[in-house]
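W.,

You were right to be curious about this one. When I first looked at the sequence I had no strong expectations either way, so I just let the prediction run and decided to look at it fresh. Below is the sequence, 289 residues in total, followed by the output.
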Amino acid sequence: MIYRLLALNIDGTLLQSNGRLHKATKEAIEYVQQKGIYVTLVTSRSFPTAKRTAKALKIKSPLITHQGALVASAEDKTIYVKRISENITYDTIRFLESFPCQIRLVHEKFSLANKFKHQHNLLGRTTVTPGEPMFYSQQFVSSLTEYLHDQPVAPPKLEVYFEEKRDLDDAKKALESMFIEIETIQVNELRMDIVPAGVSKLAGLTYLGDLLGFDLKEMVYIGDSLDDIPLIEAAGLGVSMWNAPYEVKKASDWVTRSENEQGVAYMVKEHFRKQQPIEFLRKMKIIKH
């Protein structure tokens, strides 16, 4: 199979556990782009933070961000965006405030979170992503519903961080029965993302593939989280990181090394060195476009 597109998750995949890109990873992405492979990022992150990673990797193609709710190019050109309405945002957050959790409203220009002290000391890690651009405003308020009552917002995504898994399970089940306008996506045991109905990382990647004329079977996807499973299963070659949960590894065709062992670089070099450059394949009329 000839693969035309490489899609990558960011946290736990491209980035090491310290939030940094390894030199070998940068070199591998440059290597695969020189072969004519289209490279994109697929992430739950906001667009500004994803763009920072894309810039470091010299990726200029559109990025799939906010769990697929916003697809935009590195030049800030929005190709696709879907939002949770102001009313549904308010009602959803009002319900979630009955749980001991931190709620983060993630807009493409700013983020807004309630002040909540995590017993497990996850506050810094969950609300401030390593390497977030300084121009991306992050504000904390005592009550999100009070703020939204006066200043309504229609965000592409909400992030919710729980103390206990049972609270996440209860909230997820309740929200799914209460609202048809939103989707709940479990990222890990204590984190749930909320997006507009019909939105997902897979839907975003499919949308970009349709624009480019690439089928999912012509794509390689590399990820590490529970929300990466649908993409790993749908891609022509689905790859999980060694640091991924068992369920993610089970769904994959290939398990590469961990994020701290440059798993992306290892997989890319091992696989794509066997594939001829896209331009050569065109000249040989093995592919048409």
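Here's what jumped out at me. The radius of gyration is 19 Å. And, maybe more interesting for your project: Residues 227 and 233 are 11 Å apart (CA to CA).

Coffee later to discuss?

I.
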